Amino acid sequence: MKVTGKVENIFAHAVALDQNGGLRNTIFGLGDEVYIMNYDHTILLRFPLPKSAMKFDPPISFKANDYDSDEFEQEGDKIIFTSEKNGYLRKKTCGVAELTPQQVRDLFKEYTDEDEAERHTISINKGMLELLDHNLSHVEFIAEPGEEIRMIQRNIYSGGIIEVKKKGGLMDDESTDYKIGPVAIKTGDFAALFAFTEIVNFSFPVEGAEDYILIKAMKSNVPFDGVVACCLYDEIIEIKNSKHHGREKQKIRRSK
Question: Which of 101, 136, 205, 219 could form a cystine bridge with 30, CB 3.0-4.6 A?
Fold first, then answer.
């Protein structure tokens, strides 16, 4: 199996994020889709592949930091990367992920299979990152009825607060008719999403559980959508098994 074009671009982004600490992640390829899940299960992204791209049949999975060559194959529970240079052949063997690609696809569908009317969506531009303090743990989203959504960062040690709200099109003009949040994303997770695109749509729950946010890349050469688990201060929420809307699905579990 040899990856080219958009698939190679997705893998390269995943590896770069892993190496710079943006996302420590695992890559899953299944049919005409690529999934990326980070190490603490707070981000799950799906990248639909164009019809002209290769298909992952059979499915594959591997840690991003194990990615060694654009030519590889899976044999049982091992991935073998092959590269050639100056007349020498190099093979690197590593293990596959604990979750299977099909389990990851099922997990993604369970979170994203819901009524969009139950959520409020705003668009955020990559330029927003320049207004944040990347040393603070999380970015909080909050809105009262009749207000626009604000982004807040809190320094829980000094009591300092950074507040960012729309000006010049960074967020939607419309105010909300209902309360949103407070709901937060780890600052590192938030920034990592913009490595793939300039604009990301964030869809917040308007009622019920506020444990996760749905996201979608806009105007991107590498389209993707995904699920981002929420956090509060030093507490994160993992994507696990639970009941949602009366059916079994992956549970969002809080852990420190």
Answer: 101
